[in-house]
Amino acid sequence: MEIDKKIIRKLIEVLEDLKKSLKGNKIINSDDSIEEKIVDSKAVIKSPIVGTAYLSQEPGAKPFVSVGKKIKKGDTVMIIEAMKTMNHVPSPINGTIKKICIEDGQPVEFGQVLVLLD
């Protein structure tokens, strides 16, 4: 496979022009992880897997947790679906739900903060 040298030169010129036009502007790399600072929270519950998070057993059902609800260690906080398997996410400690950081049906990444506990 031979690559046309004219295309490569044009691509380099375009990239150089782009670099000049962005000079002085701060560029945020999308690969950089931007972490929110979590203040005044005793514990966080993070996603153990990549998948889709659900706050209730089924659509229209009562959510597992809500802000202000007291939970015990081992209580299901939400379900994360991965590869058609429903994985229950348990609470690691006793506490009170301070904030639910995701929406129902939202895709989540490994290690993403799901819930803050007090």
**Radius of gyration, in angstroms, nearest whole number:** 22 Å
Unreliable residue stretches = 31-35
User: Termini separation (Å)?
Assistant: 60 Å
Tally of individual helices: 1
The coarse silhouette is elongated
SSE order in H/E notation? HEEEEEEEE
Main pleated-sheet profile: 4 strands, antiparallel
State which percent range the strand residues make up.
25-35%
Helix coverage percent? 10-25%
* Physical arrangement of strands within the biggest beta sheet: 1-8-6-3
Instruction: Report the structural category.
Output: alpha+beta
What features would you describe in this structure?
A four-stranded antiparallel beta sheet has the order 1-8-6-3, with no helix packed on it. The chain has a four-stranded antiparallel beta sheet with strand order 5-4-2-7, with no helix packed on it. The protein is built from one helix and eight strands; from the N terminus they run αββββββββ. It has one helix at residues 5-21; strands spanning 43-46, 51-54, 70-71, 76-82, 85-90, 95-100, 106-108, 113-117.
Topology (SSEs and partners):
Layout: H1 5-21, E1 43-46, E2 51-54, E3 70-71, E4 76-82, E5 85-90, E6 95-100, E7 106-108, E8 113-117
Antiparallel strand pairs: 1-8, 2-4, 2-7, 3-6, 4-5, 6-8
